[in-house]
Amino acid sequence: MPSLGQRAFCEWLGTAFLLAAVVGSGIMAQKLTGDGALALLCNTLPTGAILAVLILVFGPLSGAHFNPAVSIGFALRGELAWSAAAIYIVAQVLGGLVGVWVAHLMFELPVWQFSITQRTGPGQWLAEAVATFGLLLTVFGCVSRRPQSVPYAVGLYITAAYWFTASTSFANPAVTIARSLSDTFAGIAPAGVAAFIAAQLAGALAAVGVSRWLWRERITA
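and the corresponding structure tokens:
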């Protein structure tokens, strides 16, 4: 089994690549099209694709969480030590920031910036709770029955959730924090971050509860 240091590095690097893909594809979409729907599609497809790839690459090493909500969920299920979860979360947040900054550098934008895109309101918060609930339920369900399907299921879920949620499915506290530092297509104003994270954690807690009921024998075995 890889050491905790190796696993944390995988979480850092994987989250960095994820944010580079999210922010970079958003910047590219803005450059190439003035159509909001087409830009969102251009942002969606690379995000879903890179998730599948990253989980395939890093899943056997760290579990490929790339998301504090996922790490907390596994800790609550007793499948990840809380000490390891804390280290994962720090690595994920730092990796997300690096990914955003690398995306800025690749497109020759100022590295340090704050988003002015307002994403707030009950509909957006509910969307983040729903998006995170669905994401974690996808992960737990696949892990319990078909672990080999996790990369594809997660990539497809996020691809779909970009479009059926009002918030475009951040579903990830590390992603939310990092995207607040990018005044680009994928950004979120810093004032909206706390509410998004609260909604995401609420969705994650609900998913843990439902997963315990649906796949009880997996957890207690």
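(Above: one complete record from the training split.) Residues 4-32 form the longest helix (29 residues).
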